[in-house]
């Protein structure tokens, strides 16, 4: 019967009498000897050279021979002819339904390709008609604040870099720590301009400045001020803090890990909580940022708490062989000017910078508050930071401890970094700054950077979208016929389209615009950002192709849902997703879908 059915499909317009005559002819019997054990594929191949595939003349010859055969006189052949006749009457209906299904699938596939192509073209050219417009007044207000701060920061970077060779990253991290109201630690051998970088911040921030070099014999009076003799007469233990650390807004402390236990406890509270216990009174200090320098890492456990208070850390190295010539040439040409200006004080240095270009306490406070309240941290960034902490504490050898305080402050630092770059969202690329935050020893910084770049290359976000799309397809197959569920699915598909559109816009912008999210980042040095962009660009081409394919799949599902398609149509439109659905679903759910008849058609006998 299966072989006969195959023959009927091949000659759908042949009548039952003609087909019966053909099967009864000696030519067919000789060419096609079929047993009940033959499979449809074997039977089809065996009959591939039968006369009906050649010409109309062969058909006529076979038919004339059949009229002379005793088909109607044999009961068995009469039964075959009857069953064959009934099947032939249904064959045109099945063929027509299959033809209609193919036409329907082709129309939907063409509509999906057209819709996806237009969407991708609009996104690539910068058009985004499906995104809701925002209040322009809000955008202008946020943009003006960000552009003002950005202009000051760009000027500050230029001023601080003057005369410093290969200290681009140190300068940018110093400013980032200041804008975040956090502290920075510079570690490196003597003579690597750590102190010079720290002192230059005083030229750019309008505020009280304090500087001190610590030794193992330093006393608290050197940092916090002398005791008040007049207060001692009244039995009060009060310090005269004017001109000392408790009243400074910007502080530079050299060789900070030489602090003894008499200084340590007071310094911890002042640096972290911004509080100072002066006698019996606890007062709030105006400290914005503290820059610390050291030639060595802390050696004792009692310094670990102080070490953890400095959120940003940078290992300062010697100028490379390529930069030594430039450094010597610059300083040899400017040695006479430096000798002439050796008597200039800080106020004279500040005079070279326009007053409106200096950072103020209000700028820093406003920047941090607005960044924390307005800049959105995406779930992908949260997951990346969480995975990075797990990697550092469980997979690195030796393990790197990351305190909860440091982890929370690191996310706030990323918010400030994004805000100063003119963005209202923290992206995964901002996590590149964590290489200067989460390490305990300098050699761990490069390993953190490699891990972040590897995560940016993998792009787990697309995997999550793939899982979401597979789930939507499965639910679509189960929800056919239920209009309420189908409408809910259409809303989720629209959200998925918006998500992929945002991802595609980001990738296309990076590829066509020269990777601006990295190269135009205020907080990444020029050489550092160029190296990162070069490493990530090949991966972005693969990501772009993957997003394009996923957009086509989502749009195809969207078109099928709007057309009210049946399960068989979905199976033809998205065969890979249908195969996953069949493989991962219970047979009781799949069987009704697989045996559901075509609309308006007859089931196959």
Helix content: 55-70%
**Arithmetic mean pLDDT:** 78
Characterize the main sheet: 5 strands, parallel
Q: What spatial form do the alpha-carbon principal axes imply? A: elongated
Overall SS class: mainly alpha
* Content of β-strand: 5-15%
- Radius of gyration, in Å, reads 39 Å
Q: Count of helical segments?
A: 27
Contiguous uncertain segments of 5+ residues: 31-74, 127-144, 341-351, 595-605
Task: State the separation between the terminal residues, measured CA to CA.
Answer: 9 Å
Features:
61% helix; 5-stranded parallel beta sheet; disordered C terminus; mainly alpha; two-stranded antiparallel sheet; elongated; 605 residues
How would you describe this structure to a colleague?
- The protein is mainly α and 605 residues long.
- Helices cover 61% and strands 6% of the residues.
- It has 27 helices and 9 strands.
- Strands 2-3-6-1-7 form a 5-stranded parallel sheet, covered by helices on one side. Strands 4-5 form a two-stranded antiparallel sheet.
- A hairpin with a 2-residue loop joins strand 4 and strand 5.
- Helix 1 packs across helix 6.
- The protein is elongated.
- The C terminus is likely disordered.
Summarize the topology.
Blueprint: H1 2-10, H2 16-24, H3 26-31, H4 40-46, H5 56-67, H6 75-124, H7 136-161, H8 168-179, E1 184-187, H9 194-200, E2 209-213, H10 220-224, H11 229-233, E3 250-254, H12 261-272, E4 275-278, E5 281-284, E6 289-294, H13 304-308, E7 312-315, H14 321-333, H15 335-340, H16 346-351, H17 361-374, E8 376-377, H18 379-395, H19 404-420, E9 425-426, H20 444-458, H21 460-478, H22 483-512, H23 516-519, H24 526-562, H25 567-573, H26 575-584, H27 587-594
Parallel strand pairs: 1-6, 1-7, 2-3, 3-6, 8-9
Antiparallel strand pairs: 4-5
């Amino acid at each position: 019967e299966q072989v006969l059915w195959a023959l009927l499909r091949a000659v759908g317009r042949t009548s039952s009498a003609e087909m019966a005559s053909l099967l009864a002819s000696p030519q067919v019997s000789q060419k096609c000897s079929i047993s009940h054990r033959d499979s449809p594929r074997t039977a089809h191949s065996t009959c591939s050279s039968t006369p009906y595939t050649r010409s109309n003349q062969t058909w006529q010859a076979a038919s004339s021979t059949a009229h002379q055969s005793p088909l109607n006189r044999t009961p068995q052949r009469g039964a075959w002819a009857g069953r064959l006749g009934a099947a032939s009457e249904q064959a045109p209906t099945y063929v027509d339904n299959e033809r209609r299904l193919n036409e329907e699938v082709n129309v939907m596939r063409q509509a999906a390709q057209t819709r996806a192509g237009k969407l991708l073209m609009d996104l690539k050219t910068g058009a985004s008609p499906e995104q809701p417009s925002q209040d322009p007044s809000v955008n202008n207000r946020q943009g003006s604040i960000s552009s003002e701060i950005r202009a000051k920061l760009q000027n500050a970077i230029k001023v601080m870099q003057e005369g410093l060779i290969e200290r681009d990253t140190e300068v940018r991290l110093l400013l980032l720590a200041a804008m975040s109201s956090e502290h920075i630690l510079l570690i490196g051998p003597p003579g690597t301009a750590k102190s010079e970088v720290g002192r230059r911040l005083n030229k750019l921030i309008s505020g009280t400045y304090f500087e001190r070099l610590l030794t193992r014999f330093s006393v608290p009076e050197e940092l916090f001020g002398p005791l008040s003799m007049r207060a001692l007469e009244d039995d009060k233990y009060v310090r005269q803090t004017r001109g000392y650390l408790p009243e400074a807004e910007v502080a530079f402390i050299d060789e900070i890990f030489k602090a003894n236990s008499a200084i340590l406890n007071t310094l911890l509270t002042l640096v972290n909580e911004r509080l100072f216990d002066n006698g019996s009174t606890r007062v709030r200090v105006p400290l914005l940022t503290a820059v610390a320098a050291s030639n060595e890492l802390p050696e004792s456990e009692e310094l670990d708490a102080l070490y953890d208070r400095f959120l940003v850390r940078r290992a300062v190295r010697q100028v490379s062989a390529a930069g030594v010539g430039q450094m010597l040439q610059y300083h040899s040409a400017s040695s006479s000017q430096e000798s002439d200006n050796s008597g200039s004080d800080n106020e004279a240095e500040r005079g070279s910078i326009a007053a409106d270009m200096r950072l103020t306490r209000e700028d820093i406070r406003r920047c941090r508050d607005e960044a924390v309240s307005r800049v959105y941290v995406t779930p992908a960034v949260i997951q990346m930071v969480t995975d990075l902490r797990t990697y550092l504490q469980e997979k690195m050898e030796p393990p790197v401890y990351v305190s909860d305080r440091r982890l929370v402050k690191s996310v706030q630092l990323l918010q400030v970094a994004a805000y100063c770059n003119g963005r209202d969202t923290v992206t995964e690329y901002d996590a590149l700054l964590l290489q200067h935050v989460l390490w305990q020893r300098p050699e761990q910084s490069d390993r953190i950077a490699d891990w972040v770049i590897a995560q940016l290359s993998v792009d787990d976000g697309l995997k999550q979208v793939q899982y979401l799309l597979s789930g939507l397809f499965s639910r679509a197959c189960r929800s056919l016929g239920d209009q309420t569920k189908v409408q809910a699915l259409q809303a989720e598909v629209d959200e998925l389209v918006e998500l992929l559109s945002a991802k595609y816009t980001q990738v296309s912008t990076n590829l066509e615009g020269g990777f601006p999210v990295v190269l135009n980042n205020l907080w990444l040095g020029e050489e550092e950002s160029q190296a990162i962009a070069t490493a990530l660009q090949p991966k972005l081409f693969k990501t772009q192709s993957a997003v394009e394919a996923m957009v086509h799949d989502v749009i195809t599902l969207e078109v099928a849902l709007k057309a009210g398609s049946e399960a068989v149509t979905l199976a033809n439109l998205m065969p890979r997703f249908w195969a996953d659905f069949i493989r991962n679903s219970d047979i009781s759910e799949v069987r009704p879908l697989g045996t559901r008849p075509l609309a308006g058609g007859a089931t196959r006998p």
